[in-house]
Amino acid sequence: MSTPVILIVDDEPGNLAVLSKLLRPQYTVRVCKSGQQALEAAARQPRPDLILLDVMMPIMDGYAVLQQLRQQKNTVDIPVIFVTALNDELDEEQGLQRGAVDYITKPIKPAVVLSRVQVHIEVKQARDRLKSQNAWLEAEVKRRMSENLLIQDVSLATMAQLAETRDSELGNHIVRTQTYVETLARRLQQLDDFKEQLDEIRLNRIVKAAPLHDIGKIGIPDHILLKPGKLTPAEWVLMQSHCQIGGNAIERAINTTLAHYPPTPDQAKPESLRFLEVAKEIALHHHEKWDGSGYPFGLRGESIPLSARLMALADAFDALTTVRVYKDAWPVAEAAALIHDQRGKHFAPMAVDAFEAELPAFARIHQQLADHPTET
After folding, report:
1. Is pLDDT above 90 for 92?
2. Which CATH code for domain 165-368?
3. Collapsing DSSP states into helix, strand and coil, what is residue 304?
4. H helices within the chain, ranges in order?
5. What pLDDT was estimated at residue 90?
6. Verdict on whether the full-model pTM lies above 0.90
7. 216 in Cβ contact with 242 (< 8 Å)
8. Domain ranges of the chain
9. The domain 5-134 belongs to what CATH superfamily?
10. In this predicted model, what pLDDT tens digit does every residue of 152-165 receive, in sequence order?
11. Which of 290, 62, 249 is nearest to 163 (CA)?
12. Which residues contact residue 218 at a Cβ distance below 8 angstroms, ignoring those fewer than 6 apart?
């Protein structure tokens, strides 16, 4: 550990000499003869660990110097001991109220000076160690949170890809629909009606959860999932069940998390659970329709979670504009026309309005992430 630095400020050379001689055997000592010099010296590296400051100085007294030290970011934490011939209790009280840590009267007593300097140097060193430790802890928490989020993201991507690999023709479906959802959400975020529902935290949850919308397809048999022709009524019922399969799977994940890590009454709900709740909404309700004709529950209007409303449009646009085993890809313009026609029927009106405002962005995403170069 380096030797502590003490700055002595006094307009009397004799006082500077006495204090310097007393302190130099144990400390690195710097001296100034005016308030302005003291401000300049305190701001230079290495900054003082302690300042012994005379009160009665011409032009700028000790009170004025201390006031300016406390106003500067790089000197605000330097402890200051007033050294003065004043010995009235009111003078001492005034100095302490202005931010001095101690008060020594002249003529000085060497033992008193050494003792008080040592105490305040030790306090400063302890405070610096604590500050350094807190900074390290904050950095470590951020690092571990970043690692945990990365692991979570990789796990989620793996789960989503596992569901989608059941259908080899879906290609970039996950990343396209996720990007479509974010595009819609950011457009709606600009509107007063959605500022709270789509603040940055909630918006990010929706975007992060979007890839899990079809996780339930893991439970659909291949002969139905990959069937090139029209599904029979019984097969269609099974296909529709992927919403509840996905929702139930995520619900079990939530319950398992709560069982292993039950929050105390005073704890906020963990972010991982909030994210899973949004993922469950999307998986369960992304095939509901605004007019109530969707599945699995026939929800209507705003009873459909906002996250699922956005996913419904993004998923439908992607299904229309990409090749599937049962259809060719539609041109973007034709898909946009159908979505416009379904405003207030299949799709939420505000979602359609956001889609139409962002149609050029949707077209770019579709082109940049196309599975087949011929898709337009």
Report:
1. no
2. 1.10.3210.10
3. coil
4. 13-23, 35-43, 62-71, 89-97, 110-164, 173-189, 200-209, 222-225, 233-240, 242-260, 271-285, 306-321, 332-341, 349-357, 359-368
5. 54
6. no
7. yes
8. 5-134, 165-368
9. Response regulator (3.40.50.2300)
10. 555 565 555 555 55
11. 249
12. 162, 163, 166, 245, 249
